[in-house]
Structure formats: C-alpha cells, structure tokens
Amino acid sequence: MPRQPCKIPxxxxxxxxxxxxxxxxxxxxxxxxxxPDYHPRHRDRPGDRFDRACREHGRKPRDVDLVxxxxxxxxxxxxxxxxxxxxxxxxxxxxRLVDDSGRAGERLQPxxxxxxxxxxILGLPALATAAETGCDWSPAETELGVVLPDDYKxxxxxxxxxxxDDQVIVCAPDAAHDWADLVQHxxxxxxCVRLDFxxxxxxxxxxxxxxxxxxxxxxxxxxxxxxxxxxxxxWGSSVNGDFLFWHVRHGTAPYDxxxxxxxxxPYWEQYRVGFSATxxxxxxxxxxxxxxxxxxxxxxxxAL
Length: 304
Fold this sequence. Notes:
The chain is an alpha+beta fold. The chain contains six helices and 13 strands. The strands form two sheets. The chain has a seven-stranded antiparallel β-sheet with strand order 12-11-10-9-8-7-13, covered by helices on one side. The protein has a six-stranded antiparallel β-barrel with strand order 1-2-5-4-3-6. The chain starts with 10 loop residues before the first strand and ends with a strand.
C-alpha cells in the first residue's frame, strides 16, 4: 500500500529569538547588539513581539513586552516594557502565527522526494546520475541490530560521508575518517548518552538505552518521548559536539523514525521526520532548531 504523505496544520507557530551581547538605551527603546537566532527565514521582523527573556537554556526567565522596531544581522531595536532589565548573554524570545494555506502542494509531497530535494539544495549531482560509493550495509546493520532507513542509505550510497554546510557531519559505514564512521560514531554517542540516562554513578557498561532499570530515578534526564524498549542510533553530529539520532521505536518502519538532536548538555530537540526531510527542513528553514538553524542559512554545500 503506498505511503500516505503527512498533513501539516494550515496555521502553525514559529519561534523567534535574539541572543543579546549588549544593551544600549536609545530614544523610545533599546538597541540590542547581538545575533538573531534560527534560520534567516524565521528571523524577527518589525512588529514581532518578544514576551520572554532568559539566560541560556531557559535559566532565570522573566516576562517582558518588547516590540521589534528594526532588525539586522547584528542588532535589534525594540520598544516596550522590560528592556531596562536586559543584560548581556540574555536571550529574548517570542512567537508568531503563520498561515500555511498557500503551501498545500508542498505539504502533500511524498516524503521520499525529500532525498532528491536534499541533493538539489546541496548542489549535488542528481541521484540518478551520481556515482555510487557502493556501501556494504550488511556489516553495519548487523552491528547496529537494525535495517537502516532507505533514504539515508540512498544518500550515502550516492555521496558518501560528508559535512553539510561545514556544520553537520553525516556518517557512513567504513568512512575514511574514524569520526565519520557510522558504527564507531554511534558507539561513542551511546557512551555519552548513557551518562545522561543513568547518571555518573552507573552509566558505564554496554547496556541498551531502552533498559529503564538503568535510568536515573524519575527519569530525570531521559526525554519524555523516549519509552522503555526504544533505541537511539546516531547517524551524525554537529561541529559543536551535538549528536543527531534516529529515535527507533518498536513497530515503526525505519523511514518513519524521527530525528532528534542531543545538545552537548541535557537538552533535546525533536524534528518528527526522517533523515532527508530533517536536513531539507533545516536547510530551508521549514524546521526550526535552537541549536542548528543559525548555522544553516546558506550557501549550502556538502563535502568531506
């Protein structure tokens, strides 16, 4: 039975944020030196409103009511209430509602088309004409204990391991560099995540992440969407040391494994789509990531 494309709500919320490096009072408001977060497609616009200020990772949150008057890649001018309380290293954030009614055709594309679209965005030869690297997937899949998603294998067969925009590393079996080897990278990623799941006292050992008996009490650092028996397989990383995983769920086909990001600290992001669709979304701005979007605004490339 053919796979049915997922439908996305017509109206969605886009997050906005700006990382503050310095604050200066100006007539009628404040000038915030710093950097807009997220992909350029989602950056703040005049009239957008910030309603929250905090330190990194949401620490010390405060309510504000600030309206963007002007924005560039290096500063924002805002007016309203709360600007006098802002400090360097604050992050101001808000959200806007977006009507996607005019994009119904894009929403209804079959998900498998994302792989071809990804190669186009990265300026790579078409999949049909790309020289195949001829990966032998059997050893890696046997070692990992799963059959990997077809869209990922199709991409790696055509283009090999590489770096997207010099920011996101895509691993492959038997890559020339150890840090890009799929199995070795996944082993390292699991060692790091076990520390978060089990805490510093009992993280060592080669035990499956889905073994809830090893988790910290009250699953303190285990994400709420990860259930006993689930697994994570890491297919890549960021140059900042973040891990990119598939969330492997029992009874879910490999192509439908959602991608999640594990930031170097205890924070996670879910993208709810697979390998190719996640990279397409991050590169086009259709997916927002607090940790990756600002680095993936283009120009786009793929190389090792």
